[in-house]
């Protein structure tokens, strides 16, 4: 009898400790008990030359997704933006969070606020059922995440007063003033601006079935398409809404569901709709592919020329490789913006070993 009472007491104690532990986790900031803890970032203030923002005027509007899997990357990306901005207090972030993400939008909001107390931002909830029935299989499961498609719906989610936005992926860092990118002019009624890569083999982004179909392949007949990466885009939301580009992208996704015409998730529909009609931006604003290919995630070097933005698109993510003890050389640049509590936060100059990789803006050091 004594043994039964003792066992029952242990079980009861375990229950109360477990409940108390769960409740305590849920009331702390840092990923709803998912192990994320970020110290408060430095407070970056406007320079004397910065205009006083009034409403949406003089604000640089930036849109990003926030989710548990890429949260550490998102925090580093935000940190890099405000750290190098000439007018950091004039940046407004629009964060898109998934409805059923392990880290709830409420907790994500608390985490961002505790890490960046002076940041201007708003969090929007993206309903995954908006797009889930349009997503087809891809060469890598991560590319099938519904949140990858949230950029298609910015024109619907953001207030109508937001007529222009810079969309940024979560696996990148800026080493230059985002205001320069914001000042991109979209000419000839173009809807988006992005660095183009016309030397790339464009045919490889679509299947043989696409190119052999005389009806759907003629979409490129009247334009000269070039590859561009959708992780960095300047978007005119007025033209986007007027042209109903969300529906145009969805139409191609519906075709993909019936007849497999591409392999790479959310990128090809943008190529189908916009390639050949993109405002070309200097390549320094998206040095992409640093995550390696979509299968092996091998190390990559930078493209020739100066750099304003480094982008770890591809399978390999810098925080994963750093934690695993097998980082690529360029991952240490990302590390200097990493605010994760478990890592040494580096604010000094980048190691001299990287100095010959590319030209740094003078204020990077």
Describe this structure in words.
The protein is α/β, with parallel strands linked by helices and 365 residues long. The chain has one domain (55-334): Spore Coat Polysaccharide Biosynthesis Protein SpsA, Chain A (Alpha-Beta Complex), CATH 3.90.550. It contains 11 helices and 11 strands. The protein has helices spanning 2-26, 71-84, 105-115, 154-157, 178-182, 208-212, 237-242, 245-258, 267-274, 318-323, 331-335; strands spanning 60-66, 91-98, 120-126, 164-168, 172-174, 192-194, 196-197, 227-228, 232-236, 279-280, 309-311. Strands 3-2-1-4-9-6-10 form a 7-stranded mixed sheet. Strand 1 (60-66), helix 2 (71-84) and strand 2 (91-98) form a beta-alpha-beta unit. Helix 8 packs across helix 9 (267-274). The model is unreliable at 1-32 and 343-365 (pLDDT under 50).
Compact description:
The protein has helices at residues 2-26, 71-84, 105-115, 154-157, 178-182, 208-212, 237-242, 245-258, 267-274, 318-323, 331-335, and strands spanning 60-66, 91-98, 120-126, 164-168, 172-174, 192-194, 196-197, 227-228, 232-236, 279-280, 309-311. It is of the alpha/beta class and 365 residues long. It is globular and about 55 Å long.
Specify the overall morphology.
globular
List the secondary-structure elements in sequence, H or E.
HEHEHEHEEHEEHEEHHHEEHH
- Indicate the structural class: alpha/beta
Count of discrete alpha- or pi-helical segments spanning 4 or more residues = 11
CATH superfamily: Spore Coat Polysaccharide Biosynthesis Protein SpsA, Chain A
CATH class: Alpha Beta
Q: How far apart lie the N and C ends?
A: 71 Å
Rg over CA atoms = 22 Å
CATH topology: Spore Coat Polysaccharide Biosynthesis Protein SpsA, Chain A
The structural domain count equals 1
Strand content: 5-15%
* Arithmetic mean pLDDT: 83
Largest sheet: 7 strands, mixed
Find the count of extended strands (DSSP E, 2+ residues): 11
Multimerization state: single chain
Order of adjacent strands in the largest pleated sheet: 3-2-1-4-9-6-10
- Gross CATH architecture: Alpha-Beta Complex
Proportion of helical residues: 25-40%
Q: Low-confidence runs (pLDDT<50, min 5 residues)?
A: 1-32, 343-365
């Amino acid at each position: 009898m004594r043994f039964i009472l003792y066992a029952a007491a242990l079980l009861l104690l375990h229950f109360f400790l477990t409940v108390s532990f769960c409740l305590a986790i849920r009331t702390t900031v840092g990923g709803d008990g998912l192990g994320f803890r970020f110290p408060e970032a430095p407070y970056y203030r406007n320079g004397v030359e910065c205009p006083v923002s009034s409403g949406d005027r003089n604000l640089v509007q930036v849109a990003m997704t926030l989710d548990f899997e890429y949260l550490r990357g998102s925090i580093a990306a935000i940190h890099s933006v405000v750290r190098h901005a000439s007018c950091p207090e004039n940046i407004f972030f629009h964060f898109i969070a998934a409805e059923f993400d392990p880290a709830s939008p409420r907790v994500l909001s608390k985490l961002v606020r505790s890490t960046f107390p002076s940041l201007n931002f708003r969090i929007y909830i993206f309903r995954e059922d908006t797009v889930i029935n349009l997503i087809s299989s891809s060469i890598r499961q991560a590319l099938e995440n519904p949140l990858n498609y949230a950029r298609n719906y910015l024109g619907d989610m953001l207030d109508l007063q937001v007529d222009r936005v810079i969309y940024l992926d979560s696996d990148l860092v800026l080493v230059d003033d985002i205001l320069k990118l914001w000042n991109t002019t979209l000419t000839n009624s173009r809807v988006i601006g992005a660095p183009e890569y016309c030397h790339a083999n464009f045919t490889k982004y679509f299947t043989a079935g696409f190119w052999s179909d005389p009806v759907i392949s003629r979409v490129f007949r009247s334009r000269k398409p070039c590859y561009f990466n959708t992780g960095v885009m300047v978007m005119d939301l007025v033209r986007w809404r007027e042209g109903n580009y969300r529906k145009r992208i969805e139409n191609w996704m519906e075709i993909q569901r019936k007849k497999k015409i591409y392999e790479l998730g959310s990128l090809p529909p943008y190529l189908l709709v916009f390639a050949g009609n993109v405002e070309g931006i200097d390549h320094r604003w998206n040095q992409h592919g640093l995550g390696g290919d979509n299968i092996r995630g091998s190390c990559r070097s930078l493209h020739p020329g100066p750099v304003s933005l480094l982008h770890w698109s591809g399978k390999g993510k810098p925080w994963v490789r750093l934690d695993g003890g097998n980082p690529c050389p360029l991952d240490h640049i990302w590390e200097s913006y990493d605010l994760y509590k478990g890592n040494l936060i580096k604010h000094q100059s980048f190691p001299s070993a990287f100095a010959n990789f590319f030209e740094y803006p003078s204020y990077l050091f």
